């Protein structure tokens, strides 16, 4: 993923050519060697689960024609996004656990920051689109295939990817940060809030824009998701089948739990008052939306799904045929 964003490096270097700082030191857990070893093992396992789970989902959706529906189109987008989102920083974090003094260049740090921020915003918008899709499917099932046609699905997914780029990468390039000497980041990766605390220029404009952007990408999508699930709840309560109602409640509650964890931690980070000092709890909170929710997404959204289980059984059954 770094090489995908690598074309931004010349632009960032031209913007930051007067900045005396050329590298950052990511201390993370450097002061706690034993905790660093445990963190390495946990992070490696989580990353492998994220990769294997999401790659499996992408393969099954492509393999089984029964999964070529709007719901699974958005799920495939989410799986691809989670692979990219975690790959933007987690591999570097794993490597840093094996290094005594983890160092990253200024340009690479800012590219990592832009990539993580961009993909995180895409996930915020995509989860809202997926809630809308489920709202239409349960609230208006007879017209679902008409209202959620292939063209609209592609437009909604494309809008999420393009809007996130306009809300994150473009402002980052147009409002550069200046670093005068502090180069120690108390974090596992180049998290936006951890990096911006080291800047020495006036950040009032950045803070205003961050609040406005957080409102558009966090609060509004989260409110929209809650409203969508409110409509879903009303539709479920009108069902006559107790079994169908119980199944819908189970599915929606699982989805909503993951959404609340993801948005709750992100909102607590980006919409709460910040000070110049880095806090250790910020590192823990960031791990929740960076690692935990991408690991839960394939388990909650897909692998518990009857259709996905059927596609997996079909695949395994065909491979076992002599």
From TrEMBL:
Keywords: Cell membrane, G-protein coupled receptor, Membrane, Olfaction, Receptor, Sensory transduction, Transducer, Transmembrane, Transmembrane helix
Full protein name: Olfactory receptor
Domain G-protein coupled receptors family 1 profile: 53-301
Tagged with keyword Translocase: no
Segments traversing the membrane: 37-62, 83-104, 110-132, 152-173, 208-227, 248-272, 284-303
Species assigned in the record: Monodelphis domestica (Gray short-tailed opossum)
Membrane topology note: Multi-pass membrane protein
One Gene Ontology cellular component: plasma membrane
CDD domains, sorted: 7tmA_OR13H-like
InterPro entries, A to Z: GPCR_Rhodpsn, GPCR_Rhodpsn_7TM, Olfact_rcpt
The UniProt record lists the keyword tRNA-binding: no
Listed GO MF terms: G protein-coupled receptor activity; olfactory receptor activity
Protein family according to the UniProt entry: Belongs to the G-protein coupled receptor 1 family.
Record localization: Cell membrane
Main location per the UniProt record: membrane
Gene Ontology BP terms: detection of chemical stimulus involved in sensory perception of smell
């Amino acid at each position: 993923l770094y090489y995908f964003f690598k074309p931004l490096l010349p632009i960032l270097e031209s913007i930051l050519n007067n900045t005396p700082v050329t590298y950052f030191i990511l201390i993370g857990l450097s002061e706690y060697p034993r905790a660093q070893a445990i963190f390495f093992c946990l992070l490696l396992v989580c990353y492998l689960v994220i990769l294997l789970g999401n790659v499996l989902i992408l393969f099954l959706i492509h393999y089984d024609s029964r999964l070529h529906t709007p719901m699974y189109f958005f799920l495939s987008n989410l799986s691809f996004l989670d692979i990219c989102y975690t790959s933007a920083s987690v591999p570097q974090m794993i490597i840093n656990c094996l290094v005594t003094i983890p160092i990253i260049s200024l340009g690479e740090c800012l590219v990592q920051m832009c990539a993580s921020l961009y993909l995180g915003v895409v996930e915020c918008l995509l989860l809202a689109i997926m809630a809308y899709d489920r709202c239409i499917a349960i609230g208006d099932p007879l017209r679902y295939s008409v209202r959620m046609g292939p063209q609209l699905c592609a437009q909604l997914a494309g809008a999420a990817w393009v809007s996130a780029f306009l809300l994150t990468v473009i402002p980052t390039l147009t409002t550069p940060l200046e670093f005068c000497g502090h180069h120690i980041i108390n974090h596992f990766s180049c998290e936006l809030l951890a990096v911006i605390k080291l800047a020495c220029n006036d950040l009032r404009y950045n803070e205003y824009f961050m609040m406005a952007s957080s409102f558009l990408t966090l609060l509004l999508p989260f409110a929209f998701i809650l409203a969508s699930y409110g409509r879903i709840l009303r539709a479920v309560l009108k069902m006559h089948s107790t079994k169908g109602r119980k199944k819908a409640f189970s599915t929606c509650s699982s989805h909503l739990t993951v959404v609340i964890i993801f948005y709750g931690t992100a909102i607590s980070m980006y919409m709460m008052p910040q000070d110049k000092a880095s806090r250790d709890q910020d590192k823990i909170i960031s791990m929740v939306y960076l690692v935990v929710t991408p690991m839960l997404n394939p388990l909650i959204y897909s692998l518990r799904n009857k259709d996905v289980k059927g596609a997996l059984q079909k695949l395994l059954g065909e491979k076992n045929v002599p």
